[in-house]
């Protein structure tokens, strides 16, 4: 079959085709309940000023890095930013990557050694799967999402003399909006693996939102010395791009020598580094603390509003007890209808459908931001409640018409 026919056939097999949405700027009359810009830093005037003055300050720096960090792409600016971020996040050292995807796929493709095992939460990000696909680890085994008992069972099963076990979890899960029971996970790994277990925490969504000055979940629990490595990304709360892996110097040196997503790619250029530096300068000074507090007020406001959600099969909150994260998943069997209804009302949310989430777990994902106003949140809640009301009444009418 010609290639074009094969590609066309593969596309027709897709239940839902992906496509780019083109967002006009500035975004007109829509309240953002969708992006990962949790601290609303992407439109923050202070950050913009800081970034522009950083660009000005180093006015004659080359714009492009000119190559991989192993060739021409490494400067004192790169190195001092990298160690400044690691120090701020309480780690012995760190290694910058061009993206979180590169960092996870590079790390998991090369750090687990032949014969080792990787045990991962079933909701772990695609970039970890990508790394595991390329890795020489002998076993890759999932455990049930956030289920420490299941993790213990898996650890007991894969444990072998001389084998390293890597346990991959996220600080805050992007689709379910819940945090990992990290302390229990670390304790379980320490007890069962006795020094051969290595917890790796992906803090992509928790960076900025959790911990002192946004240092993430691991620091907020004081576990930074008990985890093997952490990933922080800059593309979500920090309004930039790129990522850092925090680890010890030996792991850093190994990654520099073996992580192909670092070795064979052009390093971040000066403008990208300058924007990361500006964001971390704000975190260090504590300028984002009020934003973090406002975000948490907004989260409380949404949950308080949704208390009056009637208990019905039409709509429910996936993790009602988790009232401290900016991602709230609203389970519904009509995610597209609800999302469209909210979008038509001026509230940008996204439906998340199968195969991104399992059948029966389809949802509308609501992301809160520091920049959301209380009146936007109340408006969103009221529109959600109206939708549920209309749905319930339609249901009753159709039940009556059966009899
Ligand atoms: N890890 C997680 C948990 C993520 O959600 C993402 C981004 N969706 C990544 C890693 C990849 O980060 P980046 O966007 O910087 O490539």
Describe the model.
The structure is a single chain. By secondary structure, the chain is α/β, with parallel strands linked by helices. The chain folds into two domains: 3-32 and 288-398, Alpha-Beta Complex (Aspartate Aminotransferase, domain 1); 47-285, Aspartate Aminotransferase, domain 2 (3-Layer(aba) Sandwich), CATH 3.40.640. The protein contains 14 helices and 13 strands. It has helices spanning 3-13, 45-57, 76-88, 100-110, 126-134, 148-158, 182-193, 217-220, 249-258, 260-263, 270-285, 289-306, 335-344, 374-402; strands at 31-32, 93-97, 117-121, 139-143, 165-170, 197-202, 229-233, 243-247, 316-317, 327-331, 347-348, 350-352, 363-367. A seven-stranded mixed sheet has the order 2-8-7-6-5-3-4. Strands 9-10-13-12 form a four-stranded antiparallel sheet, covered by helices on one side. The model has no long low-confidence stretch (mean pLDDT 94). The structure holds 4'-deoxy-4'-aminopyridoxal-5'-phosphate. 4'-deoxy-4'-aminopyridoxal-5'-phosphate binds at residues 99-101, 104, 125, 127, 170, 174, 202, 204-205, 233, 235, 243. Pfam families: Aminotran_1_2. GO terms for molecular function: pyridoxal phosphate binding; transferase activity. Belongs to the class-II pyridoxal-phosphate-dependent aminotransferase family. BioF subfamily. Its cofactor is pyridoxal 5'-phosphate. InterPro entries: Aminotransferase_I/II_large, AON_synthase_class-II, PyrdxlP-dep_Trfase, PyrdxlP-dep_Trfase_major, PyrdxlP-dep_Trfase_small.
């Amino acid at each position: 079959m010609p290639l074009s026919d094969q590609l066309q056939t593969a596309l027709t097999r897709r239940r839902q085709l992906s496509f780019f949405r083109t967002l006009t700027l500035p975004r007109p009359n829509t309240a953002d309940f969708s992006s990962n810009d949790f601290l609303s830093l992407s439109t923050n005037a202070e950050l913009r000023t800081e970034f522009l003055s950083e660009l000005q300050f180093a006015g004659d720096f080359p714009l492009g890095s000119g190559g991989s960090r192993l060739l021409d792409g490494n400067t004192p600016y790169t190195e001092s930013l990298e160690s400044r971020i690691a120090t701020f996040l309480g780690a012995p050292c760190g290694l910058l990557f061009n993206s979180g995807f590169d960092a996870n796929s590079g790390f998991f493709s090369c750090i687990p050694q032949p014969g080792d095992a990787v045990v991962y939460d079933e909701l772990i990000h695609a970039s970890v799967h990508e790394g595991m696909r390329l890795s020489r680890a002998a076993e890759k085994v999932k455990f049930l999402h956030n289920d420490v008992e299941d993790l213990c069972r898996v650890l007991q099963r894969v444990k072998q003399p001389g084998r390293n076990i890597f346990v991959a979890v996220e600080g805050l899960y992007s689709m379910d909006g819940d945090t990992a029971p990290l302390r229990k996970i670390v304790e379980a790994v320490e007890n069962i693996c006795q020094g051969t277990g290595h917890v790796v925490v992906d803090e992509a969504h928790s960076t900025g939102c959790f911990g002192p000055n946004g240092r993430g979940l691991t620091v907020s629990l004081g576990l930074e010395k008990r985890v093997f490595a952490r990933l922080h990304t800059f593309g979500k709360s920090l309004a930039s791009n790129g990522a850092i892996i925090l680890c010890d110097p030996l792991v850093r040196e190994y990654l520099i020598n073996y992580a192909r997503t670092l070795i064979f790619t052009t390093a971040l250029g000066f403008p990208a580094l300058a924007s990361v530096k500006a964001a971390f300068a704000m975190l260090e000074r504590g300028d984002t603390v009020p934003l973090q507090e406002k975000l948490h007020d907004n989260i409380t406001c949404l949950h308080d509003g949704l208390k009056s959600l009637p208990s019905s099969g039409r709509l429910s909150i996936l993790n009602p007890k988790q009232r401290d994260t900016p991602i709230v998943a609203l389970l519904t069997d009509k995610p597209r209808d609800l999302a469209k209804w909210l979008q038509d009302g001026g509230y940008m949310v996204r439906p998340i459908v199968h195969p991104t989430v399992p059948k029966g777990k389809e949802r509308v994902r609501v992301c809160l931001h520091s920049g959301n106003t209380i009146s936007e949140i109340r408006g969103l809640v009221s529109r959600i409640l109206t939708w549920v009301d209309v749905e319930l009444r339609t249901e009753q009418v159709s039940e009556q018409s059966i009899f």
